[in-house]
C-alpha cells in the first residue's frame, strides 16, 4: 500500500495524547493508557496503516497450520507451529482459549507425520526468539551485529515477529522485542506496526514506537518529536522518549533530558530512565550533563551511582579528580560505583584508599568491589591483604577473593563467576590450602 509518511505522521501524532492516564493493558503487566483530549480529532479510516500481515488469532493460526500440512508447505508449517509454541510459552491461559494444550498436541502430531522432526525444530526456533528477547530490549541493541545475525537465523523471522507484535495477547515486552527484531531485519512492515502503536492507547507500546522511529532514522519525524519533547503538558515518560528519538534524528532534545534529570518533581524511576537515555546518546553531548549532576550539591544517591557508572563506562577522565570523595561516601551504591570507576580509569593513586576501605568496611558489596578492582588493575602488592578474605563470613566475598587470587597469581582453583555455589565452595577449599602454603613461603627468610 502506498502512503506518504508525512501525511500519516501528521494525522497520527496530532491525535496522540498530551498526557498519560491509568488503565489496563491488553495483557500482563498492566500498563498506563495514553489519554486523548476532547479536542483531538478522531483517526480517519483512510489514515489507519494496514500491516503487511493480518492480525493473528489462535483460530486462524491453527487453520494456517492445517492448510500448510495439507498442502505439504514445510516452511509455512514450521513458522506457524513455532508461533503456536510461542503462544503456549508466553500467553496467559485465558487468552489461548479452552483446550489449547490438547489442540496444539493434536495439530503438532499431524505436522510431525507430514514433516518428521518439525516439532523439535519449531521448539528450537521458539526458544531462539525467547533467548534473544532480553537482548532486544537493551538500549543500543540496533548496533549489535551478532544479534542481527541471530535474528536472521530464525526461519520466517519477519512473519513470526510481525505476528507476535500484532497479537494483543502476548506480553508487552515480547511484542516490543518482536518489533525491534523487525527493525534489525530491515522489514518495512515494522513501520506500519509502529505507526499503529503510536496512535493507540497502550502507553508501553506508544513509548516503544517512538523509540523505534528514533532508531529507524526517518528524519521526517525529527521536528515534531523535538516539539513534543519540549511540551511540558506531556508526561515525563513521553517527553523523555521524544527527546531521545529527536536527538537520534539530529534534532534538539538533550536539553529536555537535562531538565528532567534535574527536576525534583520527576519521580526517581523517570530520572533513572533519563540517565539511560543520556547514556544511549553520544558521550560528548551527554557526559557534561551527567558530570554536572554528579557534582551537584545534593544529588540523589540512587541516581548518583548510575551516573558514575555511565561516566566510567565512557572513560570520561573529567570525573577522576572527584572520585576520591565518593569512594569514601556513606552510601553503598555510590561507594561501589566510585570504586569500580577508579578501576576502569586505572587511577593508581586511589588504590591505597581502596585497600584501606577493603580492610575496614563491613559492607560485602563494597568489599567485593574493592577486591575486584585491585585484582583487575593487577595491583599485586595487595595480594597478602586480599588473600585473607578467603575466610570472610560472606560467601560472595570469599568467591571474589578466589577469583582475584586466580587473576593475580595465575593459579586455577576452579572459581567461576556466577557458577553453582557447590562448585565455588570446592574451589574455596582448594584455594585455602594453597594460601596456607603461600603464606608459609612468604615467612621464610
Molecular structure report:
The chain is flat, with a radius of gyration of 27 Å. The chain is built from 24 helices and 2 strands. The N and C termini lie far apart (86 Å). The chain has a two-stranded antiparallel ribbon. 63% of the residues lie in helices and 1% in strands. The protein has a domain of 130 residues. Helix 11 runs parallel beside helix 13. The chain is an all-alpha fold and 445 residues long. The N terminus is likely disordered.
Using brief descriptors, characterize the structure shown.
mainly alpha, flat, disordered N terminus, two-stranded antiparallel ribbon, 63% helix, 445 residues
Summarize the structure.
The chain is mainly α. The protein has a domain of 130 residues. The chain has 24 helices and 2 strands.
Give the arrangement of secondary structure elements.
Blueprint: H1 5-13, E1 19-20, E2 34-35, H2 58-70, H3 74-90, H4 93-96, H5 100-114, H6 118-136, H7 145-152, H8 157-166, H9 172-184, H10 189-198, H11 203-216, H12 222-229, H13 236-248, H14 254-261, H15 268-279, H16 283-294, H17 301-313, H18 323-327, H19 332-344, H20 351-360, H21 364-376, H22 383-387, H23 395-409, H24 421-443
Antiparallel strand pairs: 1-2
Helix pairs in contact: 2-3, 2-5, 3-5, 3-6, 3-8, 6-9, 8-9, 9-10, 9-11, 10-11, 11-13, 12-13, 13-14, 13-15, 14-15, 15-17, 16-17, 17-19, 19-21, 20-21, 21-23, 23-24
